[in-house]
Known about the structure:
Elements: H1 2-22, H2 25-47
Keywords: Membrane, Transmembrane, Transmembrane helix
Transmembrane segments: 27-47
Amino acid sequence: MSTVATTHKDHRQAGVLTPRFERPGPARSLLIVWVILMAAVSLALALL
């Protein structure tokens, strides 16, 4: 019974968390792109 309760809780948590994570998704991807861009620029400046 406890395993069933935990699985139900996990499913509920997943349902609650997915929309919350979808909202900052674009912002997070933009931040990752910005970090990669800055790393590429710094690498290019170091090579020049």
